[in-house]
Design goal:
Helix content: 25-40%
Number of strands: 18
Shape: globular
Number of domains: 2
Number of helices: 19
Strand order of the largest sheet: 3-2-1-4-5-7-6-8-9
CATH architecture of the largest domain: 3-Layer(aba) Sandwich
Radius of gyration: 26 Å
Distance between the termini: 52 Å
CATH superfamily of the largest domain: Vaccinia Virus protein VP39
Length: 502
């Protein structure tokens, strides 16, 4: 049974500054019909009533316990209409959406990532084609935009992942062509103390319904960030805030309609204009998962990071000849049936052999047939390429995949021209590449789809050769002494700065 917190993912808005900011943005007027599509504890309703005690507010809530509390709280308010209702599936709301909307103002802190059972998820996919059905906030935002009357205003607290993630391309298109964005405030989730959202950053989006695409494209809006305290939301004239103006058509023309908010305009321009991308010159794929690593994976030493819960490998069980076995994908019928595997972790250039996967014929048969296992992209197993951790720290890192197996925490990058491998390895470890990937996707995730979008500039052969030599120097130094000369790496960074212009 799904826990209530997992089912509803309700995070109540306790910050006065946030609530005041959002209500101010709605510009509430007498006779406005207002919607709170996920009523929660009623904090928005309470504060709207402070502005207008006769405000007409429909409050929808899926949680029966929350409904009872809301009914008790607003028992003497005849203008407050409280309904036990699934905002995403209610047939009356679907009807109202189809006929131009009902509400003048909508305000919410919708659920983020709430669990949807598989039957409901299938229904949502049909009702909201093109919108990422696994993320509830995106569905709520789309539904509420459609529930607005023309020129109606909406203010939502949502994670900032909608700005760039590939899965939210459809939502961004809808925002840019069916609304006029008034303002975006970006701030850390730490403004909600004691709550773990699973998102590093949140945003408040304020928008106006507009069904005329040309008007939407001509609209300009502000993005505000660099907030140090939550109180700054009610004082956006503070000179320490970073405020930039964007035109919606310019955002629409970005790749995947992404909101590139980099301080360096050259970076955004290159991402949009450079036709050659990493995905054009290399295959970028995710790797293998056993389905049960505690059973099949072993570690060289339990002192290795995250290694204490795994068994220690017997050196005699490691197959050192696996690279020379033609049918290696079928596994081994021998006592030496463990092979090294490249896992995540932010190591540059080359990783030590710390992890080993059972590659017996019996184990491989399990990987191919088990529902939890992922025997994906096997044509790239045991090839020479580059591994980029799916999750990084502050900077993207990359290391060689030296004809080894690599797991699903790694994006394997395999250049069409193998001679570019060392050049790309140097590039992926450079600040220049980090600026590009963090503009494409500001989170610390590096999925294959984002790696593919990184612009690639092919320099002349002398530059490729110079980078290759220096990267090999670093690799050989790591293999022999465990470290390398940072001055060599600095020279590499300078080369890439010159190639890309930043």
């Amino acid at each position: 049974m799904i826990q209530e917190s997992r089912k509803y993912q309700a995070y109540y808005t306790k910050s006065t500054s946030i609530v005041d900011y959002m209500i101010e943005k709605l510009q509430i007027k007498p006779n406005d019909l207002i919607l709170e599509p996920c009523g929660g504890d009623g904090v928005f309703v309470e504060n709207i009533l402070n502005y207008d005690e006769l405000a007409n507010i429909d409050v929808f809530e899926l949680n029966e316990i929350a409904i009872k509390k809301l009914e008790k709280k607003f028992i003497n308010k005849s203008t407050i209409n409280i309904q036990l209702c699934d905002t995403l599936l209610n047939t009356d709301l679907i009807f109202n959406s189809a006929f131009g909307g009902t509400y003048d103002k909508i305000i919410a802190n919708p659920p983020y990532g709430a669990w949807q059972d598989y039957d409901k998820r299938g229904i949502l996919k049909k009702l909201y084609p093109g919108i990422y059905s696994k993320e509830t906030y995106a569905l709520f935002l789309y539904r509420c935009i459609e529930l607005l009357r023309e020129d109606g205003l909406l203010s939502f607290i949502i994670p900032d992942t909608f700005l760039n993630l590939h899965s939210h391309t459809g939502l961004r298109k809808h925002l840019l062509t069916r609304t006029k964005i008034k303002e975006l405030a970006l701030f850390p989730s730490s403004f909600f103390p004691g709550v773990n959202f699973g998102y590093a950053n949140l945003s408040i989006i304020t928008l106006q319904k507009c069904c005329h695409q040309n008007e939407c494209f001509d609209n300009e809006f502000h993005i505000i960030n660099n907030f140090r305290t939550v109180e700054q939301l009610t004082n956006t004239c503070d000179s320490s805030l970073n405020i930039k103006t964007y035109k919606q058509k310019d955002i629409y023309l970005n790749s995947d309609h992404a909101f590139f908010v980099s301080d360096n305009l050259l970076i955004a321009k290159m991402i949009n204009s450079n036709e050659l991308k990493i995905g054009n010159i290399a295959k970028c794929v995710t790797g293998f998962y056993s389905g049960n690593d505690k059973r099949f994976l072993k570690v060289k030493s339990q002192n290795i990071k995250n290694g204490k819960n795994y068994g220690i490998i017997d050196s005699n069980s490691i197959n050192r000849n696996y690279k020379n076995i033609p049918d290696v994908l079928n596994g081994f019928d021998s006592k030496s049936h463990f092979i090294p595997i490249v896992k995540g972790g932010n190591a540059k250039y080359i990783k030590s052999e710390d992890w080993f996967m059972d590659w017996s014929q019996e184990a491989v048969n399990h990987y191919r047939t088990d529902k939890k296992a992922r025997f994906q992209n096997p044509q790239f197993y045991f090839r020479f390429g580059i591994g980029i951790p799916m999750i990084s720290s502050s900077s993207i890192t990359a290391s060689l995949v030296e004809n080894k197996l690599f797991d699903q925490s790694i994006v394997g990058v395999f250049p069409e021209e193998e001679s570019l491998t060392y050049y790309l390895l140097g590039f992926f470890n450079s600040p220049t590449c980090n600026k590009l990937i963090r503009t494409i996707n500001p989170s610390t995730n590096n999925p294959a789809n984002y790696i593919k979008k990184i612009p690639f500039i092919l320099p002349d052969k002398n530059v490729i050769q110079k980078v290759t030599i220096k990267v090999l120097e670093i690799i050989n130094s790591i293999k022999s002494s465990g470290r390398y000369d940072l001055d060599i790496e600095s020279e590499l960074h300078t080369i890439f700065e010159k190639v890309y212009g930043f």
